[in-house]
Design a protein that fits this description.
This protein has 17 helices and 11 strands. The protein is of the alpha/beta class.
Length: 532
């Protein structure tokens, strides 16, 4: 009997080779997101993951899913190095170590997918039933566990394809993620099917047909929205003001006056008439509430602009129950200012960034560990996603990364918000974060069929209508102010009504079908393989 030949290290069946191929596949999948924006690359990467999982046991499935996730999330989150090293002054090797740790934490979800897929997906083409539902469930977990970090869910890769993007009004971004994995599964089945070129052609044809179905739905939906009679409400004339204040100057005490002057001059350049002027997150990096002179200055600017100004600003409030009256809660917030500079109409950010705006479990950690943003005091979370009342329609305020949480934005829409407004400062992050964050804001507009107005300190500022069409843009690292007419949205979508309620039945149906097919094949988990 001839001796078995040792497997080469690059052979995908070997432990090292499989890990190498999966890491490369994960990195390839990152090309699906901005600034590369090639969704079919992501589908191919997911297909490669499924090909390697077909012959894996549960331990190998867990490991392959994990290394795929690490290889995927390191390039997808590489913008974090700017936050840690440049602005957080953390040494570069330590910054890369932290990024790798975050990627490993997010890779727990892809490892879970690998484990579940190996345990439950039946061999052969029938495994197509399980992969999309399992992937969707694992992505949904990423939106909710440990405060959630749903950055770059697979569905965001489709934002450049406006027709396909419309699928989000049925089931949100995760339904588009399900579509992406379905395409990857069909491609993987075609790649590894032993039935010959005819069957492979049918499987690839199925992938083309599925993509055509999604495109066809989107084209029909866009045409239907365009054909709706006018609502009777006029479009909103909005001024977007992008100050482009360098991050290293933004929080210097002596720069408050020059910052305000920059925003004043930009606002005065806006052509009228205007209904609303929007400044970005912490455009005023000081407590406007306690500066009477600046409040009077802002009131005069509102009068000159002929419209209220919505601006990001830090807020404070006395701690409830403190008898001394000397303790304060601090908020990352927004104010809607009128001609009197009144600060009563306010929004307080409720979903804070761990280590950026507060230190989780601070009571357990040494005092030397501080948040990355200026100021030693942690921000306090606001009361939740609550619309801000306004006479032209309630505003759904989203500060910074609050816009990446689909269900929280849906809560705002269901609470009566008519206009979504994202105030952010992406100057903390590397260049790839800007278009990625913008894509998530665009997705929220389609999911809820509401317009999205987005203003960022260093860009990208933009406005989208309820179809997800871009109305105007101020590019990154530009100092500018523009006026745009934003039509009202319908505020009606299936996703707005049911949210993620579709995921449970899909998951259970796929699980039941997989169980039944495995039972037919005599391959239920824990049973001996009787197929041979």
């Amino acid at each position: 009997m001839p001796a078995m030949q040792p497997q080469r290290w690059w052979n995908w069946r070997s432990p090292w080779g499989g890990s190498l191929w999966m890491t490369a596949a994960g990195a390839l999948g990152a090309g699906g997101f901005a600034p590369w924006s090639q969704p079919l690359l992501l589908a191919v990467a997911l297909g490669l993951l499924l090909v390697l999982l077909r012959e894996a046991g549960w331990r190998r499935g867990l490991g392959l899913g994990f290394v795929f996730g690490v290889g995927h999330f390191i390039p997808a989150f590489s913008w974090l190095i700017t936050s840690l090293h440049v602005h957080g002054h953390i040494p570069l090797p330590t910054s890369w170590l932290i990024l790798t740790g975050l990627a490993a934490a997010m890779a727990v979800h892809t490892a879970l997918f690998g484990l579940l897929y190996v345990l439950w997906a039946p061999p052969g083409w029938a495994g197509l039933l399980a992969a999309p539902a399992l992937w969707a469930a694992c992505e949904w977990l990423r939106t909710v566990l440990f405060s959630g970090f749903p950055w770059n869910l697979a569905g965001y890769a489709w934002t450049p394809w406006l027709e396909v993007l419309q699928v989000a009004d049925l089931g949100g971004v995760i339904l588009l993620s399900t579509l992406t994995m379905a395409l990857g599964a069909l491609w993987a089945a075609a790649l590894s099917d032993p039935g010959g070129w005819r069957r492979r052609g049918l499987l690839l044809g199925g992938a083309v047909g599925l993509l055509a179905l999604a495109h066809g739905y989107g084209a029909w939906r866009l045409a239907a929205l365009d054909a709706l009679p006018p609502s009777g409400d006029p479009p909103l004339a909005v001024g977007l003001v992008q100050g482009n204040i360098p991050q290293e100057l933004k929080w210097q005490k002596g720069y408050n006056g020059p910052t305000l002057k920059i925003y004043e001059e930009l606002t005065r350049r806006l052509p009228g008439p205007l209904d609303l002027v929007v400044w970005p997150e912490t455009a005023l990096p000081f407590f406007l509430e306690i500066y009477g002179v600046h409040r009077h200055q802002m009131g005069a600017l509102v009068q000159q602009a002929g419209a209220p100004i919505l601006t990001g600003v830090p807020l404070l409030r006395p701690v409830t129950g403190d008898p001394s009256g000397r303790s304060w809660d601090f908020f990352n917030g927004a104010l809607l200012l009128n001609e009197q500079g009144d600060t009563g109409r306010r929004y307080e950010k409720h979903h804070l960034v761990p280590y950026g705006e507060y230190v989780p479990l601070r009571w357990l950690l040494p005092g030397t560990i501080q948040k990355l943003t200026p100021g030693g005091q942690d921000f306090t979370p606001g009361p939740g996603p609550v619309p801000l009342a306004w006479d032209k329609g309630a505003l759904g305020i989203l500060i910074c990364y609050e816009t990446i949480f689909p269900d929280e934005v849906r809560t705002l829409a269901r609470a009566g918000a008519r206009w979504l407004v994202n105030l952010t400062n992406d100057g903390w992050f590397g260049p790839s974060a800007k278009p990625q964050h913008l894509a998530m804001a665009q997705m929220r507009a389609v999911e809820n069929r509401l317009p999205m107005i987005r203003v960022a300190n260093t860009g990208i500022s933009a406005a989208f209508d309820h179809r997800g069409r871009e109305l105007i843009r101020i590019p990154a690292l530009a100092r500018d102010a523009v006026r745009v007419l934003v039509p009202p949205g319908t505020g009606e979508s299936l996703f707005r009504r049911i949210g993620m309620a579709w995921l449970g039945p899909l998951f259970l149906a796929a699980l039941a079908a997989s169980w039944w097919l495995r039972w037919r094949q005599g391959r239920l988990p824990g049973m001996p393989d009787t197929s041979g």
